[in-house]
Design brief:
Length: 400
């Protein structure tokens, strides 16, 4: 018996994928020249799989803010806020996010993953029941496991199924926490938050929404899908990340409950890990200001998303959702998906390959994501590459 025995099944699967060309899960970006352009294998490549929705990774104001913080405050905090103390920047950032989200309590975590672990496991315990959308992200599942709460899954985006499952719980004396996401990252579809909020009210439950992919993307002020659906007041806990629209790294949990502030002292992924660095705080703070003050970024993002979505539909790709900045095309099988992914990269376009076990129903997807920073010409080039890939696949599989 060997510690590594559990990996024995991996090489076969992995080798089959790599044998078709490259390792899709270890692509090296040799140079990063802009939010939408990199160099891979010595060749200029368009990034169409980065979730850099507002393109702020190269924003001059963000870079300048980060540079100044780095020079003035050093490279890192070297510990957790509980032990090493809070930098003024942490507080300013929490305050800024609170203003944008219009919520009194905001707690910043080192990543979005940890925000979910910390918030879920801090809020719920063995006497509580969590109801989660079946397609929720892995870190929500991990947070649920860590909490020790009873976990009930409801059918993806089905308020009816959620309602049924809550009714089945009867008037059990446990707290009920409903968890869903805003924009779902695999299909690019969105949660029916209005209907879910109604179910929440009918069952006196709490509602927790992971807006990782929707902050900065949805809502007139970029607060997320709850703002867009006009149900922000029904959401008890909003979780998000700094690694997408905000162009950096980190995460947060925000709430309208004043007592949520105590999560800082009940959340192990907050207490026992180092806090984000001054340069990170400064770039996120500046990016958050841009979300609030530059609606034109969101407008450009949506124009670009429409452009790619309509172009791929016209080419005959089977898309997983209506227009959103995540545009996933369903592939008939893994071999075709890997072949198409390699072929797109040969043509200078990088997208994400999503295959089981990472996909909700075991599908194989080519997942693209749009940025406000993409130019119209870049989107046309992406579409030309998809068109050429479609012609190649049709030669091998005329039924596609
Ligand atoms: N929530 C969702 C819905 C996500 O898709 C992700 C990761 N993409 C996370 C949380 C984790 O965020 P981070 O990458 O900042 O840890």
């Amino acid at each position: 018996m060997d510690l590594f025995d559990k990996f024995d099944e991996l090489p076969g699967r992995y080798k089959r994928i790599v044998a078709q060309g490259r390792n899709p899960f270890g692509v090296e970006m040799e140079q990063i020249t802009s939010p939408t352009q990199v160099v891979i294998e010595g060749k200029k490549t368009i990034l169409a799989g980065s979730h850099n929705y507002l393109g702020l990774t190269f924003d001059e104001d963000c870079i300048e803010a980060g540079r100044t913080a780095l020079a003035e405050q050093g490279t890192g905090t070297t510990g957790s806020r509980i032990a090493n103390g809070t930098f003024r920047g942490h507080q300013k950032l929490e305050q800024k996010l609170g203003e944008i989200l219009d919520l009194p309590t905001v707690i910043v975590f080192p990543t979005g993953y940890q925000a979910n672990l910390g918030a879920i496991a801090g809020l719920a315990g063995s006497d509580d029941t969590i109801l989660i959308d079946a397609d929720c992200h892995a870190c929500i599942y991990d947070g649920c496991k860590m909490s020790g709460a009873t976990v009930v899954r409801f059918r993806h985006n089905s308020p009816e199924d959620l309602d049924r499952r809550l009714s089945r719980l009867g008037d059990e004396n446990s707290n009920k926490l409903i968890i869903t996401e805003g924009l779902f990252s695999m299909y690019g579809d969105t949660a029916p938050l209005k209907e879910i909020a109604e179910v929440k009210r009918n069952h006196s439950a709490y509602l927790y929404v992971d807006e990782a992919h929707s902050v900065g993307v949805y809502g007139a002020r970029g607060r997320g899908l709850a703002e867009q659906h006009d149900v922000a007041d029904d959401v008890d806990f909003v979780v998000g990340t700094f690694s997408k629209s905000l162009g950096s790294i980190g995460g947060f949990c925000a709430s309208n409950h004043p007592k949520a502030e105590y999560l800082r002292y009940a959340s192990r992924p907050y207490m026992f890990t180092a806090s984000i660095s001054p340069a990170t705080i400064a770039t996120v703070l500046k990016a958050a200001e841009h979300i609030a003050e530059k609606p034109e970024l969101r407008e450009r993002l949506w124009r670009n998303s429409e452009h790619l979505h309509s172009g791929l539909s016209e080419l005959g790709y089977k898309l997983c959702s209506t227009v959103s900045p995540i545009i996933s095309a369903e592939m008939p099988d893994q071999e075709t998906a890997v072949r198409c992914w390699n072929s797109l990269l040969d043509k200078g376009v990088y997208v994400n390959l999503a295959i089981p076990p990472g996909t909700p129903k075991g599908e194989c997807l080519l997942r693209a994501s749009m940025s406000a920073a993409h130019t119209s010409e870049e989107i046309d080039q992406i579409l030309e590459a998809y068109a050429a890939v479609k012609r190649e696949v049709n030669k091998i599989r005329p039924d596609q």
